[in-house]
Amino acid sequence: MLVRISGEVKNYPWGSKTLVQDHFDLGVENQRVSEVWFGTHDGGHSKLMGSNQLLSDAIGSKLSFLVKFLAAESPLSIQVHPNPTQAKDGFARESKAGVPIGAPERNYKDDLHKPEILIALTKFEALCGFRPRAQLLEIFRAFADSEPRFAELAALTETGASFEEIFMEILDDHLLARRFTKSVQGLVADSIAEKARLLAVGLLGKYSGDTGAVAALLLNHIKLSPGQAIFLPAGNLHAYLSGLGLEVMAASDNVIRGGLTSKHIDKAELRKISDFSELSNPLVAPKKLAEGLIEYQVEASEFRVYRAEVTGSNLLADLDLPVGGLIVCVSGEVAIGTSLEEREVLKKGEVVYVGRANKFSISGGGAAFVILGSKRP
């Protein structure tokens, strides 16, 4: 089975008016497009092109993963996702308490976890996990001369206070968030501290008085080049800041927020499920499988993600297809063929579902991502 599918466009305020439109020719001109969903999630069903049939109906089941084009012009919230046990317990607890699924204060929309990977399609900035303690101490000490509160935070950091304690200290300090821009002035150019200051000032310019903008100092500020990726397992505090990326995740909608948002923040739940350990290297190291084929190896049973690049002199033939999945063209033009003698030619931004065949091949001149699920529909 090889069929073209549509994506569902989302128009959240943080989206871009140009990234998706210019890169993929999707969405409406001069309208903010934040995400385009491909999959079988209830929040955004894909349909078969031409017939308008739901993909889930066509394959007789739901995919274990969700794929999105994500275009951020403004920062998304600092957030974290639960592990499987936390998701089940949280969903059961809130359901038993009678909290409506759509209620603003509801944390758990389903009983599933949500590991995810973000692969940059353009230059992309993000916050991902807690930066090394030595860096954090350097930042706090540099800020201490102009803002005494940071001297206290430096002392906490130096004496071994946990990242949990430091993070919550900042998240609760609304006065610090309100006076940060005026009190902490320019530092040594290109230093870690100056880069962190500029980050916080920029975030406060968009989210005035939001303590999450100062708490962001604790997180790794990552600048990805196209093709680079970060993985966000359960407990990883993160935020997407700017750029266009391909996001693949387990098919869940469970998000607990920690700042840079006007939405509900449950500090107790945030504290409970966050991983407060250091993350020295947030980048995913791709593994080369063949010429023109790499895998982004991550610890997620719901999906596997590959990037295929083909040219006139290099095609990828007779690849195993153990389960159904999606193939997303992101540049040029690629032809997809299956062992059932099906064939589709994709241009960038176009997506197919492939399944019920033992093998598939990719040829042409371009690049595509192949996302395979956890079971055969």
Description:
This protein has helices at residues 19-24, 55-59, 84-96, 133-144, 148-158, 163-171, 174-183, 192-206, 211-215, 267-273, and strands at residues 2-5, 8-10, 35-38, 65-72, 78-80, 116-120, 124-130, 219-224, 229-232, 238-250, 256-259, 287-290, 293-296, 304-310, 316-320, 325-338, 343-347, 351-354, 359-372. It is built from ten helices and 19 strands. The longest helix is centred in the middle third of the chain and has 15 residues, at 192-206. Strand 12 and strand 13 form a beta hairpin. The strands form three sheets. Strands 1, 12, 13, 14, 15, 16, 17, 18 and 19 form a nine-stranded antiparallel sheet that branches. Strands 2, 3, 4, 6, 7, 8, 9 and 10 form an eight-stranded antiparallel sheet that branches. It is an alpha+beta fold and 377 residues long. Helix 4 packs across helix 8 (192-206). 25% of the residues lie in helices and 31% in strands. The chain has two domains: 75-282, Jelly Rolls (Sandwich); 287-372, Jelly Rolls (Sandwich).
